Amino acid sequence: FSLDLETLGCSWLPLDKLRKVDRVGRTFYESPALIGCAFAVGRGLYDTLWGFDPAMQLWGVEDLDFSLKCWLAAHPVLHDPLAVIGHRFQDSFSTYRVSAVHILVNQMRTAYKHLSLSTWPEWLRLCRERHNDWSADRPEGLFSAAWHSFQSGFATAERERFYLQALRRYDDLWYAERFGLPWPTLARRSPRKSLPVLLQAFADPSPSPPPQCQIGSMQFLCDGVPADTYDPMYVFLGTTVTFQVVPANPQNPCPDASVSWGGTSGASGTGTSTSVRFGNVSASPTDYKTVTATCGNTVTVNVVVYDLSGTFTPDDNFQGRSTTQYGLDEEVELGFTTNPPGLTAAQIGRLKWIIQPGGVGTILATETGTADYDAGPVAGEVRLELELLDCPSDGLGATYVKDVIAPNGGYCVRVPGSGIWHCVNTFSIGLNSSFYLQPSTVSFAKLLFKEGRSIAQTTEWFNPIAGKVHQEWGSWYDVGNGNINTGCPVVLNFGDVAWLSNFTPPPYAAGTFLWAIPWLYSADGGNSAQQFATVNQSFSMTANGDATVQKDGAGPFGNNGADPSSNL
Predict the structure, then answer these.
(1) Could you please report the per-residue DSSP string of 153-204?
(2) Least-confidence region, from 135-139, 167-171, 351-355
(3) Which of 74, 243, 515, 566 is the most exposed place for a label (fewest CB within 10 A)?
(4) Same domain flag for 413 and 526
(5) Cα(138)–Cα(146) distance, rounded to whole angstroms?
(6) Which residue in 53, 153, 59 sits closest to 101, CA to CA?
(7) Is 125 helix (H, G, I), strand (E, B) or coil?
(8) Closest Cα partner for 431 from 422, 423, 440?
(9) Which contiguous run of DSSP H or E holds residue 109?
(10) Residue 284, domain member (yes or no)
């Protein structure tokens, strides 16, 4: 499909007129332009090139405009000879009317956006020569009618031109040479002129007096680049926004002193731009903080000023738990609320949870203000930031400091209803207990637990078994959900039995036996172990046969060798 830059006309081309290229093991052909009725483009590229120009009028040229966007940004348009497309053509516009003015306006927009400023005046001169005809409904002539319409949308054309020319890799001269076009050529380019001079040179020749200054629209600066306002705008509390007016007629801009600013936002002063700091939250989604600009007419922008608060919902969200600390490997659902209530990410723009550098844990975040935070296996501080990504409040947001902590202790409790084990007329004693991890303010339900190896310390009567080893458990055990009163329990199916016996009958003697047992946790599924506490498991005996057992906070509990046998 051919494209003539001088006329922006197009026509079919045979394959032998196209340059052949090989891609991914197949043969394609470079096409100067694409056909709007049958083409495919990736969403990412379409968005990067700003897609079809929404300011184009009714019908025509938008596909040629997009073709130039592709080629000049170094994204070739390729024809696939194997594709078969069905399209119904018609000889005339029998069901609707297409205005010649609209087509010419679209051509002007396309030419202005893609031609160099040194080529643009020559294109305008040639265009005026081709379209200087008039009719009863256009006594001023086709060119003048189209020029008036083009100027009314000039602000959007200028914004897109600015964006595309910064993006592109090639210019119109390269395109003409690439596809063998007779125009433009380097020798025929006009001297470069400033935009005001170009607009003045091709102004409407009508002798009517210039119109009074009027504001066409208002823009705000997004990272220094003008962007169109929208209604309503959503602005984060404390944001300073710079607004500027766009004249209805670029040939008749408003002088600085003639534009006055006002509104309930606190905007004031004169000039073509003003900066407003939005320091008061809107009471409701319809409590607008307005910005007005007046110059012959008044243009108003409605602004909703909102504040953000992060929400944090741990998977193990037990009553009374800490809101500023998480246990190792805890998982937390992040979200947000707004003031005024009920605003959504679709309204206020993209926002994303991030971990500031140096923070512990990992995060899986969307750009709609939700995320899943995993505290991870390492204790430390994390700064979770809810950051706004879109203008005018991009880079702002809210930061929350949280601490990720490891278990730092624990204790034992005798299993309710259990007995003290004993065999009559022997030294034998045993205790069944449950374990709990501390602190109780967070959850360690994602960790694993076991006891480590210990060597007995003995005195007197127990010295014959000095050095007896408490072996490290062969298996890891799960940890249960948090409880502010008890801490997280270790999930032991039948409790832990602390017992000792040599089944020795009287006579007895005094002595002590102690295992200082390491308590271990794993935050990586049992691949590694970290000690977080030492629990004393001790036994004692007296000469008259009184025995005791104690495991940390459970006990001491006792019996006498002469007591009847008992079970746990």
Answers:
(1) THHHHHHHHHHHHHH-SS-HHHHHHHTT-SSS-GGGPPPP--HHHHHHHTS-
(2) 135-139
(3) 74
(4) yes
(5) 10
(6) 59
(7) helix
(8) 422
(9) helix 100-114
(10) yes
The distance from CA 156 to its chain's CA centroid, rounded to whole angstroms, is 28
Quote the tokens at residue 125: 């001169």
CA dihedral over 78, 81, 86, 91, signed as positive or negative:
positive
pLDDT in tens, 359-414: 999 999 999 999 999 999 999 999 999 999 998 999 999 999 999 999 999 999 99
Q: How do residues 453-490 score in pLDDT, each as one tens digit?
A: 999 999 999 999 999 999 999 999 999 999 999 999 99
Alpha-carbon distance 203 to 197, whole Å? 10
The burial class, CB within 10 Å (0-12 / 13-18 / 19+), for 108 is buried
332 and 445 in a single domain? The answer is no
CB 18 within 8 A of CB 30: yes
Q: What is the DSSP letter of 505?
A: P
Q: Which of 43-52, 71-80, 196-205 has the lowest mean pLDDT?
A: 196-205
Q: What is the pLDDT of residue 510?
A: 96
The tens digit of pLDDT for each residue in 214-242 reads 888 899 988 788 888 888 999 999 999 99
The whole-angstrom separation of Cα 254 and Cα 243 is 15
Cα dihedral: 27, 33, 38, 40 (round 10): 70
| Cα–Cα nearest to 3, from 11, 107, 73 | 11
H or E element, residue 332: strand 331-339
Give residues with Cβ within 8 angstroms of 194, minimum separation 6: none
| 17 and 142 co-located in one domain | yes
Number of domains present in the structure of the chain: 4
- Predicted confidence at residue 212, as pLDDT, reads 56
Whole-Å CA distances, 330 to 178, 438, 528: 60, 15, 18
Mean pLDDT is lowest, of 23-27, 82-86, 130-134, 200-204, for: 200-204
Is residue 567 domain-resident?
Answer: no
Q: How far apart are CA 324 and CA 332, in angstroms?
A: 12
Q: Are residues 280 and 362 located together in one domain of the fold?
A: no
Question: Do 394 and 456 lie in a common domain?
Answer: no
Where is the domain boundary, 201, 234, 250?
201
430, 421 contact by CB (below 8 A): yes
Tokens 């409701």, located at residue: 284
Residue ending a domain, choose from 386, 405, 424: 405
Residues 245 and 325 in one domain: no
Handedness of CA 48, 70, 117, 167 (dihedral sign): positive
The residue range of the domain holding 231 is: 215-305
For residue 364, give the CATH number of its domain. 2.60.40
Rounded CA-CA distance 436/535 in Å is: 12
Report the candidate in 188, 185, 169, 187 with the shortest Cα–Cα distance to residue 177: 185
AA identity, residue 277: R
Residue type, 438: Q
Q: Where does residue 198 fall: left (phi above 0), alpha (psi -120 to 50 degrees), or beta otherwise?
A: alpha
Higher-confidence position of 206 and 75: 75
